[in-house]
Amino acid sequence: MSNLWRKDVRKTVNRRSALTISLVISLFALGGIAPAAAEDLDNPPSPPACVKPCFNPPAYSIDKASSIWVVVNKQRPLSPLTYVPKLAQPKFTAKGQNPYGLFLAPEAATALEQLFKDALEAKAGTLMLQSAYRSYSYQSVVHDRQVKRLGKTAGEALAARPGFSEHQTGLAADIGAVGQGCLIQTCFSQTKGGTFLRLKAYKYGFIVRYPSQRTATTGYQYEPWHIRYVGVALATEMRKRQIRVLEDFWSLPAAPSY
User: Fold this and answer.
1) Catalytic positions, please?
2) Most buried residue among 20, 38, 61, 156 by CB atoms closer than 10 A?
3) pTM confidence score
4) How far apart (Å, rounded) are the C-alpha atoms in residues 71 and 246?
5) Are 125 and 232 in the same domain?
6) Where in the sequence is the domain holding 14, given as residue range(s)?
7) Residue 48 exposure: Cα atoms within 13 Å on the Cβ side
8) Residues of the chain with pLDDT under 50
9) Is residue 116, in this structure, part of any structural domain at all?
């Protein structure tokens, strides 16, 4: 094959390529569509505002006892009253974090394992599980003890009646911090462990269920040690919207009493 023939072939191919490119550009122009600019490839569109897990209101029930979104308060008992959840024992990495061998619902147990681990790494101290799942019968003992000790009004501002307790769902936990004092006291909020819960718990799917100055809505005194698992999607949504209690988030009536 002669060099002259090769040159003629290359010229023909180049002319055809140029003609094809011109035709494509013309078609884009006629259709009112501009070809993508080179910089578009370097600057792709921003991702959606919601990053998984996204909050999806119909995802779970607020009435079903086994739902991670179930709302339990003095006006919303569990159904059935003697409900028993699936349970798992958290597998913590540090000694002394579950001194009583307590159990939680599996989702809550897994989330709490990571929360405790990260609290240690953040130098917030060794968090410990002081109370978790309570059966209907055990909650009866806790309720009666507090009422006998404090009187009915004060006792029921601290301990729920059996069948009305979040602890019975396996989704609630009372947390302390080893060596930081203020166990089951409001001053726990000022400890390193309590501060970590208040600021970071939502990242693991927990909320401080009974915040300060909300007794008229929740029916319970301020309990900075009591956290409730609702999943990362809902906890994050509540944080974003600055809504602190489930009753307000779901537009439910206040439940100050039975």
Assistant:
1) 223
2) 156
3) 0.80
4) 7
5) yes
6) 3-42
7) 5
8) 1-42, 44, 46-47
9) yes
